[in-house]
């Protein structure tokens, strides 16, 4: 999904538009400068009491106070939801860059938090992210039902707790599209489907940052969902609620190590071979015993141990004599019949008058 924002890369001089220590309106000052002057980037600001909260760049250039008033009106239409974090205030830097103040302490970018996880902490993070984004998708559905669109969803505007377990995510970045539209930097109008596709793209980016992926039965379905969102259609993209249902189903699927292992059909090294009939008991580690029917008793010979030896040797089956004798009898009768036929023909030829002899007489 191509972002509707048409943003050039920030220049070196643009970063000086927001400097450490400068005032943002009458209540805030910059505690740490943003890493880039790009819409959606968050950085630390401090209020008058010294409490640190997050500020968010809402445009990559200067705006007018009239634009700020118009965007404040746009933000007032965004419904309040648990996972939606819209600016409490929009302040202007000394150079006129709009900054949204997110007055909720203890938040960081979710990308930064996921990069610091160890191997043990990463185990449950895939399902935690799936459930968090399912909740986000439900709230985005409510946002769309109210007639509002976000238009700038990415992994960079996803926020989470600075400490403790990662059990949810907050969606920020509201106001970015409003300023881009007024500055003429909106390449295409946002759409509901675009928000859902961008939401999946943000989730994929966070999976890559954390170094995790859905496993077990959810792996193939997640890959199909992600590729369908990029190159085609998927039923989960019909609405935010449909996407939330799909993500919750993926999170509920058992992991690869939780599924019941299927018994191997090949013997392992050091294990006895699997028996080929049901008489010999099978090794429990090799699965069920063989189902080959034992040979009939009419063709089975008892094994008699040879004298002087401790091993048991099976006696080979013997040919039945009546088969050989019967063949000789049938063959003999055939020869006798053939000889009798030849003798009768010879006598008949000897007694019959010759045609040449009658003509001579």
Describe the structure.
There is one protein chain. This protein is an alpha+beta fold and 361 residues long. Strand 1 and strand 2 form a beta hairpin. The chain is rod-shaped, with a radius of gyration of 44 Å. The N terminus and C terminus are likely disordered.
Radius of gyration: 44 Å
The neighbouring-strand order within the major sheet is 1-2-3-4-6-5
Percent helix among the residues?
25-40%
Query: What is the terminal-to-terminal distance?
Result: 121 Å
Mean pLDDT figure: 79
Assembly level:
single chain
Provide a short characterization of the protein structure.
The protein has 361 residues and is α+β, with helices and mostly antiparallel strands. The protein has helices at residues 65-76, 110-115, 119-122, 125-145, 176-182, 192-210, 218-231, 240-252, 321-351, 355-360; strands at 23-24, 28-30, 42-46, 52-57, 89-92, 98-102, 107-109, 158-161, 170-171.
Which structural traits does this protein have?
alpha+beta, rod-shaped
Would you spell out the secondary-structure blueprint of this structure?
Blueprint: E1 23-24, E2 28-30, E3 42-46, E4 52-57, H1 65-76, E5 89-92, E6 98-102, E7 107-109, H2 110-115, H3 119-122, H4 125-145, E8 158-161, E9 170-171, H5 176-182, H6 192-210, H7 218-231, H8 240-252, H9 321-351, H10 355-360
Antiparallel strand pairs: 1-2, 2-3, 3-4, 4-6, 5-6, 7-8, 8-9
Helix pairs in contact: 4-6, 4-8
